[in-house]
Design goal:
With 424 residues, this protein is α/β, with parallel strands linked by helices. 33% of the residues lie in helices and 20% in strands. Bound molecules: guanosine-5'-diphosphate (GDP), 6-O-phosphoryl inosine monophosphate and magnesium ion.
């Protein structure tokens, strides 16, 4: 059984928790897109892990971890993560497989991300400054790309870096009056990364297809969320990869027909970090209540997340384009204590109601959500393990979400811990 887990909103839906739970039955967990912009939280007992590049399966000592070709790898972050798990007694030796074809995020990518965001002022995208956009741009541009395989041929890498850094320095000086970066220093760091990472480098596409042929169970771990997808999200306020399930095949080299189930993860409300339109945003006390109860602060950047009502128009769109079979609805516990809850079931745009998510942000920015209002519940539901034990109003809320999004909710999150999960 192969499963793909993907975010249905603007990221941070709780993918890490679901991947960790389902990884118990998986042989391999695969990251296939994005980079260290992701922050996936796994809570085991009282220990909290925040993973940026390692698949969430990494915390289970028996599970194989694959970082496939579609990921952009910041080697500084990845080696740091490997070391920090080792300090906690969790070794990745012999079970981490890094694609030779994944691209490397280097210092000049992070510098460019920061310089460009600064130059945009209030029009900035609100990126994580992890160098994601500049690295994917180099991948698509090809001329200045550095891939993981280059770490295994340091002489050639040295020459490559001299040319690339020289070019970047000229551009950064001309556009931003920036101080030059040193290609020698970047190369020295690459020598250290090579020592640590070369033993893990392999052909992950071949590895995955061999695993499929042998009937192994694979879990594909999406990063970000469908509304941040470069082609299908709220462009330009998106990330630079195909963060919907549509990116899985290209990012892992595995066709969708080899995946038995696509599970979309959504919160029982909506959050977003960074800029861009957000029709159901609550810039009021209810928004603050959700932020406080849900601890809605970025795992990667610590920024407060913008909070709002559940947007069934957006999630239905994500379900539709992503071929989603089932929804994992997280953070239902966070909504306890809100008297009345709203679910956006349509957008009113220029006096017309539509249930299809608009494909450009100029239209989305005009959308007024049409809400269905339902009664909330007061009970603390964080220890409940059975759907039938939930308050009637909570059950009704979940059922309405199923109706509006046209997908069954088969997993419900009622807290950050593994056991705080209801299966239906
Ligand atoms: P990801 O990027 O999708 O993996 O999500 P993040 O880890 O960035 O953010 C989700 C946050 O919610 C983390 O702090 C999780 O520990 C926490 N979390 C996950 N599921 C639940 C849930 O059902 N209830 C509550 N209260 N917290 C949850
Ligand atoms: P996980 O995997 C939430 C957002 C940034 C910004 C936009 C572009 O933890 O769900 P980027 O650095 O990618 O160029 O930033 O995308 N963003 C995320 N928001 N969760 C994430 O990952 C995100 N990764 C990127 O905040 O708005
Ligand atoms: Mg996150």
């Amino acid at each position: 059984m192969n499963t793909c887990i993907v975010g249905l909103q603007w990221g941070d839906e709780g993918k890490g928790k679901i991947v960790d739970i389902l990884a118990e039955k998986a042989n391999l967990v695969v990251r296939y897109g994005g980079g260290a912009n992701a922050g996936h939280t796994v809570v085991i007992g009282d220990t909290k892990f925040a993973l940026h590049l390692l698949p969430s399966g990494a915390v289970r000592p028996e599970t194989g971890c694959v970082i496939a070709n579609g990921v952009v790898i910041d080697p500084d972050c990845l080696t740091g993560e490997i070391d920090s798990l080792a300090e906690k007694g969790i070794s990745l030796k012999g079970r981490l497989f890094i694609s030779q074809n994944a691209h490397l995020v280097l210092d000049y990518h992070k510098a460019e991300d920061q310089l460009r965001e600064n130059s945009l002022g209030k029009n900035k995208i609100g990126t994580t400054i992890r160098g994601i956009g500049p690295c994917y741009a180099d991948k698509v541009g090809r001329t200045f790309a550095v891939r993981v395989a280059d770490l295994a041929d340091l002489d050639t890498l040295k020459q490559k870096l001299t040319k690339i850094v020289d070019y970047k320095n000229k551009v950064f000086a001309a556009l931003y009056n920036a101080e030059p970066l040193s290609s020698e220093e970047i190369f020295k760091k690459c020598q250290l990364y090579a020592e640590k990472l070369v033993p893990f480098i392999t052909d992950t596409t071949r590895l995955l297809h061999t695993a499929i042929d042998h009937g192994k169970s694979i879990l594909f771990e999406g990063a970000q969320g469908t509304l941040l997808d470069l082609d299908h999200g709220t462009f330009p306020f998106v990330t630079s990869s195909n963060a919907s399930s549509l990116g899985m095949s290209a990012g892992a080299g595995v066709p969708a027909r080899d995946v038995d189930k696509f599970i979309g993860v959504a919160k029982a409300y909506t959050t977003r970090v960074g800029s861009g339109p957000f029709p159901t945003e609550l810039d009021n006390e209810t928004g603050s209540y959700i932020r406080d109860r849900g601890n809605e602060y970025g795992t990667t950047t610590g920024r407060p997340r913008r909070c709002g009502w559940f947007d069934a128009v957006a999630v239905r769109y994500s379900v539709t384009i992503g071929g989603i079979d089932a929804i994992a609805l997280m953070h239902l516990d966070t909504l306890s204590g809100i008297k009345q809850l709203n679910i956006a079931t349509a957008y009113r745009i220029n006096s017309e109601d539509s249930t299809f998510f608009p494909s450009n942000i100029e239209t989305l920015a005009k959308a007024q959500p049409v809400y269905q209002t339902v009664a909330g519940w007061d009970e603390d539901i964080s220890e409940m393990t059975d759907f039938d034990d939930l308050p009637q109003n909570a059950q009704r809320y979940v059922t309405l979400i199923e109706d509006f999004t046209r997908a069954p909710v088969t997993i419900i999150g009622v807290g950050p811990k593994r056991r705080q999960t209801i299966f239906r």
